[in-house]
Amino acid sequence: MPQRWLHRLYEYFALGFGLGLLGAMSLTWSLLAVPLYHLLPKRWGEPLGRWAITTGFRIYLGALSLTGACRFDITALDALRAEGPLVIAPNHPCLLDAVMVISRLPNMACIMKADIVDNVFLGAGARLAGYIRNDAQLSMIKQAVADLKKGSHLLIFPEGTRTTRWPINACKGTTALIASRAGVPVQTVFIETDSAYLSKGWPLFRRPAMPITYRIRLGRRFDPPGKAGAFTEELERYFIDELRDAPRFLPADAPRAERPDSARST
């Protein structure tokens, strides 16, 4: 019993430490990014902004590993670092997905929700890095295509939001449309975890069982799509087939009766 309570206390500490560290790092960089965004030309500011976010995220994930809160097996992404322009298309189980991918790939544009770009903690850094808002679709697609044609990688989640339907939500057509217009391949990425932590509906300060394991593996690379509709259907079927045997979790607000006994692997 004492060991159980000590472990629970440690989990609360690790949760608070992780959230506090991310907040402090993000706010510090935002305060620096504001003047840099206005002073530096885009050709200097954008690479600097992306390098800083990649470095910061890598330090943050390293800190989570050192505390024992999380275990990350995400180095498979390193094989993409020297590749030319690609649409990077992962599944989206939790809020840490973009953090993990960007921590390994420094030349990355990212399509983000507009409220994140406007966030006091993340917005200035995102603007300096040239990340793309998702609130105006035509502008979003034009910016994404232009970034790819400059040689960047582009991170986009085909589901459009965090997974709420096992193993993946219905895929949106935006991934196919951008890849088709830019004439670049779509590299699928599979993110697997044994926890519902920070999945859709998970309260930010709710304590998860720790350690949490995250694994990233590379999937098939699709040629630039021809017909967007047919490609989107093929992409969704491929994700379903590949994730069928992955550790299963359900979002935090799913009914308990639906939760499988194997929701956490040990």
Give an account of the 3D structure.
The chain is α/β, with parallel strands linked by helices and 266 residues long. Helices cover 44% and strands 14% of the residues. It contains eight helices and seven strands; from the N terminus they run ααββαβααβαβαββα. A seven-stranded mixed β-sheet has the order 1-7-6-2-5-3-4, with helices on both faces. Helix 1 (2-39) packs antiparallel against helix 2 (42-66).
SSE topology sketch:
Elements: H1 2-39, H2 42-66, E1 70-73, E2 86-90, H3 97-102, E3 108-112, H4 114-117, H5 123-128, E4 132-133, H6 137-149, E5 153-155, H7 174-182, E6 186-193, E7 212-222, H8 228-243
Parallel strand pairs: 1-7, 2-5, 2-6, 3-4, 3-5
Antiparallel strand pairs: 6-7
Helix pairs in contact: 1-2, 6-7, 7-8
Summary, kept brief:
This protein has eight helices and seven strands, in the order ααββαβααβαβαββα. The chain has 266 residues and is an alpha/beta fold.
Main features:
Glycerol-3-phosphate (1)-acyltransferase; alpha/beta; 266 residues; 8 helices; 7-stranded mixed sheet; 44% helix; disordered C terminus
